[in-house]
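Thread: "does anyone have the structure for this chain?"

Original post by V.I.:
We have the sequence but no experimental structure in hand. Need at least a predicted one for the grant figures.
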Amino acid sequence: MSDVFISYKAEDRRRVQPLVQALQADGYSVWWDEHIGTGDEWRQTIEKQLDGAKCVIVVWAKGSVGPDGHFVRDEASRAQRRHVYVPVIIDAVDPPLGFGESQATSLRGWKGDRSDPRYQAVLAAVRRIAGNGTGTAAAAPAGLKPVNRRAVLAGGGVAVVAIAGAGTWELLRPSAASASGSIAVLPFANLSGDPAQGYFSDGIAEELRSALGRIAGLKVVGRTSSEAVRNDDSQTAAKKLDVATILTGSVRQSPSTIRVTAELIDGKTGIDRWSQDYDRSPGDSIKIQTDIAENVATALSSTLGGAAKAAAIVGGTQNADAQRLFIQAGALVDKDFTPENVQQAFDLLDSAIALDPNYASAYARKAGLLIIYGNSHAKSAQELAQGRAEAVRLLQIALRIAPRLAQAHLALGLLHSSSLEMEPAYAESKRALELAPGDAFVIARYANFASVLGHSTEALDAADRAVALDPLNNDSYNLRIGALFYARRYADVVSRAREIEQSPGRKLTNPEFVGHSLVLLGRNQEAESYYGKLAPDYWSRLTGEAIILARAHDSAGALRKIEQLQKAYHDAASYQYGEIYAQLGDNDRAFASLEHGYEIKDAGLSGLKTDPFVDPIRSDPRFGALLRKMNFPA
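Reply from O.Q.:
Generated one for you, tokens below.
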């Protein structure tokens, strides 16, 4: 007999499996209905195992507490009579009347982490009742597909005939469905026993998210929202994210083996559409990801298998160690975009490229980091130029290797925009959107770019799409604020900011746009409160405060702010000097600063076409000449 019998509703098998695996790893033999073969006498087998088990874990979920959960309630009654009953909860439910005297442990959202205190509580209860365990797991009869006992008991022998007559492919192949649906890839659980390895399991999910986002017809929820529901069950997550399908799984690593479990789940019913376990050497992790992406797309539409396989390998690598370094670099800068972390990420990406010189995504990621870091933190024109020159070299390599890599085109668009080459910047951003139409990050970056070009309708539409694909991402809601500002809808900016500030869990991340809008509405005191949310020496705050002083005719005060900017940012803030001088009415100095900004390629000039703070000099012929040099698209 087994140490532990697990009673549960058949529809919850996928969610019960991590508990079975965890108990087995802790030395217990476990019996659950996957051990019934087609030759067993069903009722006798169940009764024998139930009455002989040292401990009975009863899993209470929506199905088992409902009207169809009578088998679970019957088994729970027997366990109570024998004083071997251990209740757990995996949904937001209470045990039925008569079964609530014993405190049930909640395992909602738990995916198999044995160090989790909730699992440790269950394990302690099992140890108290069953002792330390025999370690001998019940084995399924060789060559037989496990059968759902409750389906057979309900339907008699018909189920056995149906299963025996089905070929292996029919049992395993994903079901067909419309490709026009939406999917969320939840973080894969790290079951390695080492929390430091969490970046890798999360990184696998992000790689799958990126691959699926390249497939036309699939809407893929962004990373931030997907990670926000990591502890929810699939149906709750699907409801929060408004998606039809959930992809989730787990990763267990050892020096010699990597086990990846992947499950594609119907978000409405919580039922598996496809699942697979992979036990491979660590070097096979890339093949596992490719296979998962292909199977997911096949499950969503039988016509997309080849497209998914192609998407999964665009810009990628077959070197698992290189990908591990790539994932680690991304996790590092996502955690905190500091100079130290950025430099460490550069080193990791260089190591990944050394392992695989054809790793296009690694070249593209390093180029993107160089551009973003330079635009935000460069202290001189020389530092800006050096970073961009290296980014050009990296992107040329990336696109030679993988011409259809959306991330490379997106980075190239940012580079062109930062270098004030607006027409090619727009073309590259559009190309990235074409190549990854379901990628929330690509859509968000396009919304940013379209807004500064004055394409307000496109920008606001893209901002709405970004919210739809990343509905729990705070930045998605802030994205619309920038688009509204450049559309000159200042009252709407303030209104939107108020909505964000009053919404639980939301945070305003771009208060400078609200401050700017309030200045333009003549509400300077309120504007100062929003600028005050930024660091005292941050360029956007100093610029906003200088503009308030300039509009109040305090030239001396505004010039002091310019001195503070020059001390902190030197030439890199040339565009901001131009804005302030324009507000002061000093056209010559304004154009001298803007022209110098153009010479050193200050990325701030990318907003010249729509920036309201340069309106005082917009009618000057020099303004039109500068716009023409930057070649803004029509």
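V.I.: this helps a lot. Residues 137-180 have pLDDT under 50 and may be disordered.
O.Q.: and The radius of gyration is 29 Å.
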